[in-house]
Design goal:
443 residues, mainly alpha, Growth Hormone, Chain: A, 0% strand, globular
């Protein structure tokens, strides 16, 4: 008589999911698409500033009115970034980025039919709503294709799309504006957005790194998300928001008022102003392509995240603030060098603040937290352009108004840089989050 075989012992279930396979070729194709996405994104932002002088002359609008138009871009920018951040847990990055780019094209159309202040405001509000989630969601999409210890260069390249957007867009859009009228620049950007969205729909699938273990935290599963209150109120995320806020203040001022300042206060021609803006963007690009990858390498060799990504972003924003405070009181080559540092030196804060935030946030909640960081960190786009226009109209002279604006900007940026320098401690905060108990993530 054959005895029945004893049942096989239950297999031990691994606490961690299997490691995803790194598809290098596909990952870098996605990176190229996202860099192009960011290039178009920042060209869209910059076009109004580059066309500001002819628009103001043709429509007869004041500095305050122009500042209001520029600030209207940020009216829904932060809110949409926040909402889409939470939606990203349910909707693929392929769909999100395709939808954004298609809406960018639509947003450029109103001024092609009716050149008026209401049409400009309507277009900028829609554009801001569609671009609010762009940086955070494209970074989230990029992180799905790279393991955590290989994100320094891809993150830098993603943000470098901003510098490339200004480096390439400034001369090209200025050439269109001076040669074919300012409306031609809006039409060209609409066509470019359509082309990109169609290409992305074909190749932009989500990557395999969506549920990897975040260093210092538990592997995240559907049943144990961390409370968002706890994620958002730790020093690393708050410091990352501060760094983003300070850097975004300089960027908002650059997009809205730097071209106007160069032409009306420094007496530059449109071509010379575009060239200088391109030089500043090239400086940002060099920083982006060299500093974050170097810091990532130093981290792999043992340097803590606090010193490899936290402190550098705080220092960058603070140094840019000091240059912002100084350049109005200089002239010649010194003024131009300080101006470049003020408007380009903060650039590395953008990839680094995503890296520090992601170091303490579980991957499935990363998109939502990125959206929250972007929503709060980019509020300067709503404040800085209009405030500068108001200062210009209320000052005894435009030069005095610009000086007041730059000094105020320096104070905001320096405060943010110092907060980031002190507050960002990824390893410390990641250890604290390991004690979090599973809870409703909206708590």
């Amino acid at each position: 008589m054959v005895e029945p075989s004893s049942p096989a012992p239950p297999r031990e279930i691994s606490a961690s999911p299997p490691l995803p396979v790194f598809d290098r070729r596909r990952a870098w194709l996605i990176t190229a698409m996202i860099v192009t996405f960011m290039l178009v994104n920042y060209a869209d932002k910059a076009v109004l500033g580059l066309a500001a002088v002819p628009i103001m002359d043709e429509l007869g609008i004041s500095n305050s009115a122009y500042g209001l138009i520029s600030s209207s871009f940020a009216l829904l920018f932060s809110l949409s970034g926040l909402i889409v951040g939470f939606v990203s847990a349910k909707v693929s990055s392929r769909v999100l980025l395709f939808t954004m780019a298609a809406l960018w094209a639509v947003a450029q159309l109103p001024v092609l039919f009716v050149a008026s202040m209401p049409a400009l405001v309507a277009g900028r509000v829609l554009l801001g709503a569609a671009e609010g989630p762009a940086a955070s969601m494209s970074m989230h999409a990029l992180y799905k294709w790279f393991p955590a210890d290989r994100r320094g260069l891809p993150s830098a390249l993603q943000i470098s799309g901003a510098a490339l957007g200004m480096l390439i867009a400034a001369p090209v859009l200025t050439w269109l504006i001076t040669g074919f009228g300012w409306r031609s620049a809006f039409a060209a950007l609409a066509a470019t957005s359509v082309v990109w969205s169609l290409a992305w729909w074909r190749v932009g699938h989500d990557g395999p790194y969506t549920q990897e273990r975040t260093p210092g935290t538990r592997a995240q599963g559907p049943g144990n998300p961390l409370p968002y209150r706890r994620l958002l109120l730790n020093g690393t995320v708050l410091g990352s928001i501060a760094a983003a806020f300070g850097a975004s203040w300089a960027m908002a001022l650059s997009h809205a008022w730097l071209p106007v300042y160069l032409r009306t206060q420094l007496g530059m021609t449109p071509g010379a102003a575009a060239t200088l803006i391109s030089v500043v963007s090239a400086f940002s690009l060099v920083l982006l392509l060299s500093v974050p990858p170097l810091l990532d390498l130093m981290h792999r060799r043992g340097l803590s995240r606090r010193w490899s990504s936290g402190a550098p972003q705080g220092i960058a924003v603070t140094v840019a603030a000091l240059a912002m405070a100084a350049f109005p009181f200089t002239d010649g080559g010194t003024q131009l060098a300080l101006l470049g540092l003020a408007f380009g030196g903060h650039a590395i804060a953008f990839p680094l603040h995503y890296m520090t935030a992601s170091a303490v946030v579980p991957p499935l909640q990363r998109g939502a937290v990125f959206g929250i960081v972007a929503a709060t960190g980019t509020l300067p786009g709503l404040i800085a352009p209009y405030l500068t226009g108001h200062l210009l109209d209320s000052a005894s002279a435009q030069s005095a108004g610009y000086t007041q604006s730059f000094l105020l900007s320096a104070a905001v940026m320096a405060t943010c840089g110092l907060v980031a320098l002190v507050a960002i401690r990824p390893e410390h905060d990641a250890r604290r989050l390991t004690t979090a108990v599973p809870a409703d993530p909206l708590r």
